[in-house]
Write a structure and sequence with these properties.
The structure is a homodimer of 215-residue chains.
Chain A lengths: L1 E6 L3 H13 L3 E7 L2 H10 L4 E5 L7 H11 L5 E5 L4 H9 L4 E4 L6 H9 L2 E5 L2 H4 L27 H10 L5 H8 L3 H15 L4 H10 L2
Parallel strand pairs in A: 1-2, 1-3, 3-4, 4-5, 5-6
The structure holds a DNA duplex (30 and 30 nucleotides).
DNA sequence: CGCGCATTGTGACATTTGTCACCACTGCTT
DNA sequence: AAGCAGTGGTGACAAATGTCACAATGCGCG
């Protein structure tokens, strides 16, 4: 039987997650805690198979607690639970090598997540991948009061065109873009040609530069 | 009851995955196929809740098939199965917005994966995250006194080459650069060719992107 | 001085990129 | 039903880019 521990400052959340896990026969709850320090201390004495831990908590937050636990036990299976798909949190969770980052919405969804983690997989909430900076590292803000917004120049582009423009801005050539998007190279050329015409930019390098300047 | 379809060129794999899913009461197998074309055609007529598809296959591969299916049904829940954690495959799978990328090792592990996907999550094999090129966004805020420095990549360049690289990073084409520096266009081409060779960068757009990333 | 290096240049060539005309399909609106 | 925008595709062609071989100049250095 899988054993889990649940850490969330809201006792209701703890108990409802605990209930669904036990009621479905998925796992038994070894212990639960409501703050990070307690969680770390408990983990050292009674390590569960999977630790479910909230990010927002009084004292040290869930990610900090996860980091401390992983320092003592690098193989700890930790699932981060949270209400928001904050890119920074997600990033830190992944860097920590936690086994997942779930958006708390449907309590029942933790059941397959726990099972998947026990099967050696990593589970992410659906919106999470979109938040990952897999593409271009955003250039830092720079101008203080003034947020980047969106260059009106690119406003005329369709979603698809924007996607291709972003890949151009990663420095990919047409063949690479075609491969990435499963398109023919000819189509990529056509699309880029359209983009350049719409934005009144003369070549792909300028497009990349302009795109990076405001994304 | 969840319905799945299974696509793998090896019939043994298809049937063993099918067996474990039905035996555990997880899902019923709508159909299975052994190549990409058939899978795409079948999907259009009988869309399963979740499609499990292998990468390596005769004809169009699993990712290509997934791309075609997603073109017709952007919400298709597709799980990629494979033997290798190839970074390029993983990257492409994620770009396609498939619901997961599993390493085929333990047949039983598809069970929680399918359930997690039905719960709206994304499932990745354990080794997968490590393969992702999560190139660290130069999250500033780092050491204050210490500026970006200089990418060691550009350290080998001469002053002249650096000047030309900077103009490339402004998006100028060869004719414009030649005009700006009072050089012949041929010389500019040679210089840029040298820069690309020295820095091991494949084309001017990539050069521009890299240059901007650290200047 | 001779050597290496950076710089500028030419010409030829292969590859990549951009443009254009035209086709097919889908989903939406009129 | 017809029109339209968005998307994906082909083929041909022109222009830009990148590579290579080779040559000439100037500059600093042992």
């Amino acid at each position: 039987m899988i054993s889990v521990a649940i850490v969330d400052d809201d006792p209701i959340v703890c108990s409802s997650i605990g209930t669904i896990l036990t009621a479905t026969g998925t796992a038994q709850v070894l212990w639960s805690a409501h703050d990070g320090e307690t969680a770390v201390a408990n983990y050292r004495r009674h390590a569960p198979d999977v630790l479910l831990i909230d990010v927002q908590m009084p004292g040290i937050d869930g990610l900090e607690a996860a980091a401390r636990i992983l320092r003592g036990d690098p193989d700890a299976r930790i699932l981060i639970l949270t209400t928001f798909a904050d890119p920074d949190y997600i990033r830190r969770a992944i860097d920590l090598h936690t086994k997942g980052y779930l958006i708390k919405q449907d309590v029942a969804s933790v059941v397959p997540a726990v099972q998947a983690v026990m099967a050696g997989q990593v589970v992410l909430g659906a919106e999470v991948l979109g938040q990952l900076p897999l593409h271009v590292a955003p250039r830092e803000g720079g101008a203080p009061g003034e947020s980047v917004g969106e260059d009106p120049r690119f406003a005329v582009l369709t979603d698809r065109e924007r996607g291709i423009a972003a890949l151009v801005a990663e420095g990919l050539d047409n063949r690479e873009i075609a491969g990435r998007l499963y398109l023919s190279e000819g189509t990529v050329r056509n699309r880029i040609s359209d983009i350049l015409a719409k934005t009144n930019i003369s070549n792909r390098t300028k497009l990349a530069v302009e795109w990076l300047a405001c994304h």
